[in-house]
Structure formats: structure tokens, C-alpha cells
Amino acid sequence: MSGNPGSLLRLPNEVLDIVIEYITKPRDYFHLARTCHRLWEHNDPIYTCVKLDAGILWRNIVGWPGSGIRRWPSGYEPLLYWSLRTRQPVHVVMRFVDSYYRVYPEVLRGSRTSALRPAAAYAIAADHLDALQVMLDMRVVPSLKKMGEQYMSWAVELGHNLAIPRWLVENGVRVTMPHMLALDRRELAPSPDADWQWFWSHYSSSIAGNAGNVSNIGGP
User: Fold this and answer.
1) Are 172 and 137 in contact (CB under 8 A)?
2) How far apart are CA 47 and CA 107, in angstroms?
3) 203, 176 in Cβ contact below 8 A?
4) In DSSP terms, which residues pair with 62 in a beta bridge?
């Protein structure tokens, strides 16, 4: 593409449409669209990627015999999860989130029947606070009031720094003893250093959290 950037741009619309039809892997389409302004402006490339992604899910996910549980093909990663894991810019994540919400919202919410993890878990595991905030603002994942304690559990068990745990506490999520133990065990805030003391000061406070609404859906 970089050696002759004008070739794809000069194709008639009909030919370009045929080329696009032969791109079946969403990530191939996404990377191609990012290297070609015309393709990026052709309809909505991220929406097209998400439709391809949803098609792969329904054609290929498999489950254990008789279990009724379906999973992504081995080694396959939905583009939304990829955008979170690789900490894509928040405006890119927003477009993926909006498209998945329209095409296949279970990728955002998680689902026991298809063994999909909530997108919030992937954002937290990648320490992508901006993405978590965007999904909460867009109301496509459960609110802090409903699942704040679960988000904190993921943050202390899956995250790699204190940015998200601190943000959760500052926004009203309660700190529990399992959270304190995980912070110490994983040495995110080993006892009795200043960070551990900060979280301990919120352990028995009256900050409203999610006392009993913890999700059973696991992390990534």
C-alpha cells in the first residue's frame, strides 16, 4: 500500500466494494482502513469491522459437548478487547464501543451463555482508565453503584498500578478486606506503606459501594 498509495484510491466504487467483500477478517479490514483515507471514509469502517467480528462469533464459537456454553475460537480476540488490551486512543475505543452496542452488545456486557467476559474487565486489566470511564459515561456497562465492588476486585487482582483502584474509591466504591489483602499480596500497595494506608483509611468508611451486587462473570 505504501509503495503505490494511489492504486486503491483510483479504483471505481464498484471495484472497491468487491475488494472489501473479500476481506473477511475484521482486523485486516481495520488495518487496511487505517492506511487508506478513502476506505476509512467508505461508510463506517469500524462498524463494518464489528459486523465481521459478530459474524465470526456466530459462525465459529464452540463449546464443550453438552455444555451449552460457547466460546471464541482458540486464539481469536474480538476487536473491542484488542483495542482495550493495546490501549488504543479513547476516540477509537468509543467508536468500537458504539458499534458493538448496536451490533452485538453481549461483547460489552458479558454473557454466561457464550462465556464472554464484560468489556470493563478487559479495560481494567489493561489499566485503561479512560476506556472504563467512557463505557460508564455511555452507560453500556453496569454503573459503579451496581458493580463497583466487582470493578475494584478486578482492579486489584488484574491491574498493574493503582490508578483505577484510586479512581474507584474517589468515586464512591467501598474497599473491602479482600481488596486490602490483594493490594498487599500483589505488592500494588504493600502493607504498611503510604498507599496501603490510604486504602485502609477508606476500608471501614461509610462510602457507598456495591454491598451485594457482585457479578459472577469472571475476568479476562
Assistant:
1) no
2) 14
3) yes
4) 71
Per-residue pLDDT tens, the chain, 220 aa: give them. Answer: 344 444 444 545 554 455 555 444 555 555 555 555 554 455 566 777 777 777 776 665 555 445 555 555 666 677 788 889 889 899 889 988 998 898 888 888 887 666 678 899 999 999 999 999 999 999 999 999 999 999 999 999 999 999 999 999 999 999 999 999 999 999 999 999 999 999 999 985 444 444 444 443 344 5
> Is the pTM above the cut of 0.85?
no
DSSP code string of the chain: --SSTHHHHHS-HHHHHHHHHT---HHHHHHHHHH-HHHHTSS-HHHHHHHHHHHHHHHH-B--TTT---BPPTT---HHHHHHHTT--HHHHHHHHHHHHHH-THHHH-BTTTTBPPHHHHHHHTT-HHHHHHHHHTT-S--HHHHHHHHHHHHHHH-SSSHHHHHHHHTTPPP-HHHHHHHHHTTSS-TTSHHHHHHHHHHTS-----SS--------
